[in-house]
Amino acid sequence: MPEFGPDAPTGYLLVAALLFATGVFAAISRRNAIGVLIGIELMLNAAALQFAAYGRFAKSAADPQGQTAAVFVIVVAAAEAAVALALLFAVYRRTRDIDLEQNRELRS
Amino acid sequence: MIALVSFAASAALAVVGALLAASVRNLLHAALLLGVSLFGTAGLYLFLGQPWLACVQVVVYIGGILVLILFATLFSSDITGSGQRAPRALWFAALGTALTTALAAWRLVRGGVEALAARRGGEPVVPPAVGSTDAIGDLLLGAWFAPFFLAGVLLTVALVAAVAIVQRHRRPEVEAEHA
Question: N or C: which end of chain A has fewer CB within 10 A?
Fold first, then answer.
């Protein structure tokens, strides 16, 4: 069994780890709220990939529990994105700005 | 060989797209690069033998969430702007946190690979990838019915909440026009 490649779990899990770390970096280093949201989406995507990879390489590949869990992650990501962007619009409408550093609306 | 090359291409698309999405200055480009990364992940799902998941990824993630983010990016003012990047100290803190996370995740990955090998009982042959859309349907309406139902409730609540949040700050004169 090759260590990396389409038929070994290592490659998928490595990609998921890198995606998650990148998401953490984006969520911390961005000042704009949409940039933070992009980081969070990257993290959720990494989580879904992990579920799918473990499901595929578990004892029986025909067992779809991993894929189904990944779909639930995507559903949560969709709900989160809708509510987060609605909040951003509400804040933006009041302040004309969604810069997290300067926005006092979100602090106190 | 072709499989290996296209697998590597999908993985590279996912990782490079994500890295650029996290680092480019223009937010619109960042959102589009997030789409590239999501496409790469969809390719990986195909290699995992999970075409249905790949379709969901493209339809919901790229077609839904990404378009939502793009709309939000276009509606909010200063997308290319001066202050997209964090202060230097925060940037380094973010980099350090990300590297620590990557290391920790790598340890988890190593452990996970070993656990998977142990679960297969040292069998060298990986089971073949099979498409299993029927089985997913059975699972969703069988053993996983409660989470499935709750996911539906969650989506409904999220959508209603999104509409309610946006409407609350409607200006009075607009409301009067609609009344």
Answer: C
